[in-house]
Each structure stands twice: as C-alpha cells, then as structure tokens.
Amino acid sequence: MAMLGLVIVADLFALWQGNHSYRLLGRLLDDLGSVTAQEIDQADSLYGASGVVQFAATLATAAVFVTWFYRTRVNAEVFAPEYHTKKRAWAIWGWFVPVINLWFPRRIATDIWNASVGARGRSRAVLNGWWALWLVDLIFGRFAGQQYNRARTAGEIKGAIAGLMASDVCNIAAAALAILFVHRLTRMQHEKALLGPGL
C-alpha cells in the first residue's frame, strides 16, 4: 500500500509539472514573445524528470505488487483450491504476457477474492473498479505517450500533454482503488486464516 501511495505522489508531481508545461505552451501560442527559451527548457527538463520518477515508482511498485499478488494466490489455494481456474504461475506471468495481461490477472484476482471471502461476503466493486481504471489508463496512457512522442508543434505538444495529464488522473484513481483492494483482500485472508481450516 505504501508503494502504491508512492505512485500517487509521483503522478501528482507529473500532473503538477504537466500543468505548468501546458500553461506555458498556452502562453507561447497566445504570444510568442511572452515565453523565454530558458523557461521552455526548464519546463521540458522538469516534465522529463517527472516521467523518470513515475517510471521508477511504477517499476518498484510493480515488483512488490506482483510478489504480494502471488502470495495471496498461494494463500487462497490453501483456503479453497476449487475456486482457481488458472495455474499458480499465471499469478506472475499473467501480468507480462501481451494480450493475456488484459484479462488473466483480473480472473486470478477474482478467484483469489472468492476463495478468501468470509461467510459475510464482500462486494467485488473495489476489485472491478481498480481493474477497469487500470485498463483504461494502460490503453489511454500508451496512446497519449505515442501522441507526445510524435508531437512537433507547440499546439500538438500541448494537446499531448493534456492527454498525459488525463492519464495521470486515471492512474491516481486506479492506484487509490488498488490500495483499497490490497487492504481488503489482505484483511479478508487474515480473518479467514484466524478461523482455522475448513471455514
């Protein structure tokens, strides 16, 4: 959960820098003489740095999250082996195999959730919301990144930055729901373990 919080902080930093660059480009488009080359270079450097920070935070968080995810899958198999439709190894490889990574992790997360839920039951709304936002950000963020890399004019760059900022907002929301997902699933597994075998 702390690592996901770090992702949110990195995204907020990128959002702040993106907003600064967006407004600077707006000034440039309105009046060419109102922006200096130094301002442009500084904004570009800081926005690039925010992207590096985001990448580092995401990579570190992904390593911790996938490890946690695999461990919850192992626990869930102990609780209720009959719930699992995918082999244990897919809890790791499902995140990395192209195309399959669009639905295997969610299927495995659902199996883990179902095997871990107590007698009272718990809605999967957090799981479904997190997965939907993660997919939207994955697809939209990739598209926005390609637009940014292809942008040449100030207008194109400004539009691409707007897309990247929207992706950052989506990623912040996805990370917040992921924190809730991790918290609830970990708590459910803890509660189920305390009940003992067969419950």
UniProtKB/TrEMBL annotation:
Keyword annotations of the record: Membrane, Transmembrane, Transmembrane helix
Span of domain DUF4328: 34-187
Species annotation: Streptomyces kronopolitis
Secretion signal span: none
Keyword Glycoprotein attached: no
Membrane-spanning parts: 45-70, 90-109, 129-145, 157-182
Pfam families associated with the record: DUF4328
Protein name, UniProt field: DUF4328 domain-containing protein
Lineage: Bacteria, Bacillati, Actinomycetota, Actinomycetes, Kitasatosporales
